[in-house]
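Below is one such protein, fold included:
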Amino acid sequence: MHDVLIIGAGLAGSILAYQLRLADQKVLLISDPSIPSASRIAAGLINPISGQRLVLQENIETLLTSAQSFYRDIEKQFSFNILHQKQMLRVLRSDKEKEHWEKRKKDPDYQTYMDDCVHHDETAACANASAFLQHQTGYLDTNLLLNTLHAEFLNQGILYETSLDYDDLTIKPDGVLWQAHHEQTDQSKKASHQTIQAKTIVFCEGWRGQDNPWFDWLPFQPVKGEILTLSSNSDLPQYIINRGKWLLPFNADTFKLGATYDWSNLNETPTEDAKQELLHAMSQILTHHEPVKVIKHVAGVRPGTKDKHPFLGLHPECPQLGIFNGFGSKGSLLIPWYAEQFVAHLIKKSPLPKQADIKRLHREAHG
């Protein structure tokens, strides 16, 4: 019998599986290759201060310490670099944003993460505008991380690349049974026609978790986002630039540009309207720039939540069922620490962070 069966192998499911393995838990991870993963679309940005009101992420010091420690340990194990530190130049686009900055710079909690306002006349993004540098920002190479972890999991025989139908699950008093009979890839054949038993099943399904019959009462707020990868013959800035949209340089001639927000059309299909919106934003960021070439245009759906906190915990009425989801656009920053908390909860019954514990929402949904 497995200790934990994890459904979904994006950033949340994969990091949770890795940390459970470190805790000597017997894990099986299910990845459906036919379902696009938002983790592979995302730029992996890590940004302690966000939004027009320049709000500092709650518990940021702990979250950053945990994320950096986790990713650096992964880098040492596999001898590569996935966490890239890069300062962010934040352009203040309005008097209101500047007022927020004036207030924040006097707050001691913010001083580690932002500089005083400066004018970079040589940078087109903030010509004739105020801007400041944000610190402890950067990005995670999510695709390299996921490719590496999945290869390791496949080698260990704990990753099945197959689909899962909710009807194939049977909830027992002491756990869960899964009738695994789908055959989509060579790796999944090992799972075919087997009965998989686990003490706990944890759903890490991204935005599609809103359709999970056991957790459909959770207030998801998914939002579609589109991102461009572009190449340029002009010199690119050294910073990540945030001017409503963000520009993330990868090397001397390649950068990503994002992201759009669409709450209505929840699908993974790129659109021409979003492409033009992003290119217009780029023209405001890089006003003196040579023509660019679009290398890739992708779309994904962020698993957002209405109260902006993730969903963690075991089902209040069926504790064999758990969820680890709802990290929105901040997964690269949030997931390592929250995975630590969830692992401790599963193994030691340690309390979950109150702001993320799904019990806070079950009372509202069920009275």
